[in-house]
Specification:
single chain, mainly alpha, rod-shaped
């Protein structure tokens, strides 16, 4: 009958391509949201550990200073105090480094910018892939 597809088929194909692009971008967004959730849990856990170690370090430091002049066998208490304070510093540093990780959803934003640039140039995903979405029976 007709050799060329009609306007309805072209619109249908365009809508299908847009839905597939939207589905891909939504999957990417969900993946990045999960990564951000895991990163946030890690940061909170590190902060809680740092606060705990700082508390233990301060208590140990107070006990060390009180007992410092009492006997000379306080080397173990001093070492534990310094160990907890060092651990609190290291965990706090790691917590700060995790907070500076980067821009949340950077990959999604980059893909959306790429899509916008492609649409402005007049190119579509179907023309770049050689109409890979067409089925053989169509």
């Amino acid at each position: 009958m007709r050799d060329k597809p009609g306007a309805f088929q072209a619109l249908k194909r365009l809508l299908r391509d847009l839905l597939e692009i939207g589905q891909t971008r939504l999957a990417l967004l969900v993946n990045e949201a999960e990564e951000e959730r895991i990163r946030l849990i890690r940061v909170v856990a590190l902060c809680i550990l740092a606060i705990f170690c700082l508390g233990v370090g301060v208590v140990s430091l107070c006990a060390f200073l009180i007992l410092l002049f009492w006997e000379s066998r306080l080397l173990l208490l001093g070492a534990s105090c310094l160990g907890f304070l060092a651990l609190a510093f290291i965990l706090g540093w790691r917590c700060r480094a995790n907070l500076r990780y980067g821009i949340p959803f950077a990959a999604t934003l980059a893909e959306l910018q790429h899509d916008i640039a492609s649409l402005r140039d007049g190119r579509s995903a179907a023309s770049e892939t050689g109409n890979a979405h067409e089925s053989p029976s169509a």
